[in-house]
Amino acid sequence: MRAVFALLALLLLCGARDPILVPEVSQHEVRLRQGFTGTELLLFGAILNPQGTRAGRDYDIVILLKGPTQSIVVREKQKVAGVWINADSTEFRSAPAYFAVASTRPISEIVDEKTAAIYELGLRWLQLSPIGEINPAEQSRFAEGLVDLRERGGLYRQNESGVAVNEQVLYQARISLPSNVPEGTYIAETFAISKGRVVASASSSVEVRKLGFERAVAGFAEEQSFLYGLLAIGISLLMGWAAGRLFALD
After folding, report:
1. What ranges make up the beta strands (E) of 81-141?
2. Looking at the domain assignment, is residue 121 inside a domain?
């Protein structure tokens, strides 16, 4: 039976026409230590025929790097009587903590709107999944606000000329992780696209985690949030008192 299955697999492989992707990442683990100022990941790989030979065709490559998803409440600020207050808000169920896109050329020149939305091939097509009923126009406004905030914070980014393809075989892209990157499992997805159709995809993972003192502090803040808050207030008061004494001596 094993020989039969192996023969069927070989026949299917030889009959396949779509290429395969062989992706890799320069580092599969990013360690967040004290003084971490960010890092750059190199995502690279090869486009091959099912037989393992050179594909021999031009393909567009789109690479997505997604951080862990999280539920988030987005609030809109309004100025009332000279004071900024919270007004309308909405909650998104699955907003990625980090989202980066790199492609060989603008996404709108590679695929149509429907395909881009299915695969989330860009910030414009990010699926945030709002909780509860919400007007589509209002949903779009809040989604754009969230994307804008995280773009300014370096957590969302898009480079529409960020992927280089060499000899129709090797591709590579460099994606930066800022100093405020959250920890968790990141998924790097690579898509090969021809004539507006995704013909191959592959993924790999990157672990971003805190180590040492930073990990201990983060764990304490998450598990003992009340005590952590009291400790933070106490340290602030102590630092304020120490600063006051120092300036008083001067």
Report:
1. 83-96, 99-103
2. yes
